[in-house]
Amino acid sequence: MKRREALGLDLTPVIDVVFILLIFFIVTSVFKKEELALMLDLPTSNAKEMEVKEEQVFIELNQNKLAIKGIEVSFESLEDNLKAIKNKNKPVIVRIDKKVEYQRVVKVLDLLQKYDLTNLALVTNEEGKK
Question: Using CA atoms, how far apart are residues 36 and 62, in angstroms rounded to an integer?
């Protein structure tokens, strides 16, 4: 009488495929450092680099669009968002395209001053880099 051996599934190739897929998705995924909505051509400066923290408020401004926290908004909606900020010491990071009319910049700065948000940083590109 012949004895039968239990046939088992070899899991090694399955585990290899799973790891290859995992590595593929990790390598091809986009890592978001900060939520940015607008493509801006920032002015250059030789100011030191500042660390970006999660609790900061990001405002972006170009020639015809405005965004806060990565979402395009109007000036009225921006005002509502700024009014809702309880912590007046919360850092506000402002990214402004270098071709924006000065009047639009003043309008944003006036709104920040109106709601006493004075912890302000203007983002630029490092001089020598684009």
Answer: 12
Q: What is the pLDDT of residue 15?
A: 93
**Residue pointed to by tokens 């395209």:** 97
Distance CA 90, CA 36 (A): 18
3-state secondary structure of 45: strand
Task: Say if pTM beats, i.e. exceeds, 0.70.
Answer: no
Distance from the Cα of residue 37 to its chain's centroid: 8
Which residues, other chains included, contact 69 with Cβ-Cβ below 8 Å and sequence gap of 6+?
A: 35, 57, 58, 81
Give the integer Cα–Cα distance in Å for 17 and 36: 35
Could you tell me if 105 and 96 are in contact, meaning their C-beta atoms sit under 8 angstroms apart?
yes
User: What is the per-residue pLDDT across 50-93, written as a single tens digit (0 to 9) for each?
Assistant: 665 667 888 999 888 999 988 899 989 999 989 998 888 888 98
Handedness of CA 61, 65, 68, 74 (dihedral sign): positive
- 34, 37, 42, 65, 99 from 130: Cα distances, Å: 19, 19, 8, 22, 15
| Token pair listed for 2 | 């012949």
